[in-house]
Amino acid sequence: MLTTSASVRFTVWTNAMLTGACDPDTAAQKILGDDVGHHVAGLAGHPEPATLPVALNLLRAAGTTQAHLALPVPGDPIGLAGPPPFNEAALETGEAVVLTGPEIGLIPAYVGPAVQWSVLPAASPLPADFGEADRALRLALIDAAESLAALDVARWKPEVADALIDIRKIGRGSGDELAPGYEPRAVKAAATARRCLAIADAALEDDGAAVTGAEADARRRALLDLAAAARRALVAACAPPPLT
């Protein structure tokens, strides 16, 4: 689920390292999270897959100045600026990290409780408009409110009902905050975006209380719009924090 994706962690903790808010070892531990291992394959001058601490040091030495989150889906390539091979790989996984300086992108492949990152050439995206993305998410949440209120939870599969319990915890746990250096408004927006993504993901598993096909389609559109706005808000919230 995107709310806890490795790309989110890699983006914010790499930015924290680059701004001096933490050291590479701390960033590596935070990116790892509960996973058993991460390796980065394809880094210049390092023919073997690198562990996270080694990779972060190599990326900093290569002139990396910023990390950007990408959460693209077909028809909405948020965070992508090319070239086509990178865009295609990122669209296939639904997430990626773009590094300004060396102009490379990292594509995660989840293998059980481990992540293998692949390096591809990538162009840095234009800066995200945080204010616009935050407002759009609030509007999308209002528009989706009726659909969400009409959900027939009793008809959901047990695993979806369990997801609703987890949704309430998003943004409140010790591992849900952004990295040091991010402004409170970005932290709040990221937590809201994570909740909305989780809600939309869970709600789209079922047609809820919709009776007709038209009702189901309208509900689905509202939830897809909510998910799209949440992805954009999360990308904007995870953008490189301003230097102080």
Overall 3D geometry?
globular
Radius of gyration (CA) equals: 18 Å
Structural class designation: alpha+beta
The main pleated sheet reads as: 6 strands, mixed
CA(first)-CA(last) distance: 32 Å
Helix and strand run: HHEEHEHEEEHHHH
- The protein's oligomeric status is single chain
Helix residue percentage: 40-55%
Beta-sheet strand percentage? 5-15%
Which segments are poorly predicted (pLDDT under 50) over 5 or more consecutive residues? Answer: none
Structure, described:
With 244 residues, the chain is of the alpha+beta class. It folds into 2 domains: 120 residues, no CATH class; 108 residues. The chain is built from 8 helices and 6 strands, in the order ααββαβαβββαααα. A 6-stranded mixed β-sheet has the order 2-1-6-5-4-3, with helices on both faces. The two termini are 32 Å apart. The relative contact order is 0.16. The model has no long low-confidence stretch (mean pLDDT 86).
Highlighted features:
14% strand, alpha+beta, 244 residues, 48% helix
Structure described in brief:
The protein has 244 residues and is α+β, with helices and mostly antiparallel strands. The protein has helices at residues 6-18, 24-32, 52-61, 84-93, 130-149, 158-167, 184-203, 213-237; strands at residues 37-41, 50-51, 66-70, 96-100, 104-111, 114-121.
